[in-house]
């Protein structure tokens, strides 16, 4: 897990960063679709904001944005392995993104469980018939200000997809965090020796440039 090849490692890190950016964008878009089509109708001040709305909209969208930022940092680090600030930035961004994505995945699974257990009653809180609980699986008799067609199936399908994407974000973020540990030579990746190799390469580069300059300009 802590091995980082100096030759192939940067390319792998760049691929992981690109994947994080792609997954983050998809997760962000799906969260926005759920909010725009369904959850905005149950987030009015006069009504109760359900657990589904809080989890799916706020945490999922924030996780997608942070995944995009972590992916960008990973790509920049892959091109600048020697820069200390970028290494620390990769550690912090990947660690925070792993935690937030794990919380997002857990929250989405909780929202799915609550919705299935109550037959989607929380999804129908924007309807006018508030005296009688409305079943989202058969909202034929409900008078709602939005289209109730397949609201139950569509919302669950989007939430399941977002939960899977959040799990992918967790795996990618943990991998980037381990790479950051290896680059800094921190425990438990202190024996990878990649930090020493990068420091030796950084020290040898100025010497090589001076030797090349002396060969090109022997009179200097």
Automatic annotation (TrEMBL):
Keywords assigned: Membrane, Transmembrane, Transmembrane helix
List locations, semicolon-separated. Membrane
Q: What is this protein called?
A: Keratinocyte-associated protein 3
Q: Which family does it belong to?
A: Belongs to the TMEM54 family.
Identify its membrane topology class: Multi-pass membrane protein
Cellular component terms (Gene Ontology): membrane
Q: Which superkingdom, per the lineage?
A: Eukaryota
- TM ranges are 18-38, 58-78, 90-116, 156-183
Q: Which InterPro entries match?
A: Beta-casein-like (IPR020977)
One matching Pfam family is BCLP
């Amino acid at each position: 897990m802590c091995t980082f090849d100096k030759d192939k490692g940067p390319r792998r890190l760049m691929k992981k960063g690109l994947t994080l950016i792609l997954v983050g964008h998809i997760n962000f878009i799906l969260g926005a679709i759920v909010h725009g089509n369904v959850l905005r109708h149950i987030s009015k001040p006069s009504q109760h904001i359900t657990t589904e709305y809080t989890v799916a909209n706020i945490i999922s969208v924030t996780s997608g944005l942070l995944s995009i930022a972590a992916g960008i940092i990973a790509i920049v680090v892959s091109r600048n392995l020697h820069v200390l600030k970028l290494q620390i930035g990769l550690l912090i961004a990947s660690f925070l993104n792993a935690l937030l994505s794990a919380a997002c995945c857990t929250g989405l699974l909780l929202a799915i469980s609550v919705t299935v257990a109550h037959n989607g009653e929380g999804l129908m809180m924007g309807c006018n018939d508030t005296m009688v609980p409305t079943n989202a699986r058969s909202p034929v008799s409900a008078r709602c200000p939005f289209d109730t067609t397949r609201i139950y199936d569509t919302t669950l399908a989007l939430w399941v997809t977002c939960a899977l994407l959040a799990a992918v974000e967790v795996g990618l973020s943990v991998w980037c965090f381990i790479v950051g540990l290896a680059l800094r030579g921190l425990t438990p990746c202190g024996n990878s020796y990649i930090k020493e190799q990068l420091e030796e390469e950084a020290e040898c580069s100025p010497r090589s440039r001076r030797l090349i300059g002396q060969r090109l300009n022997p009179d200097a």
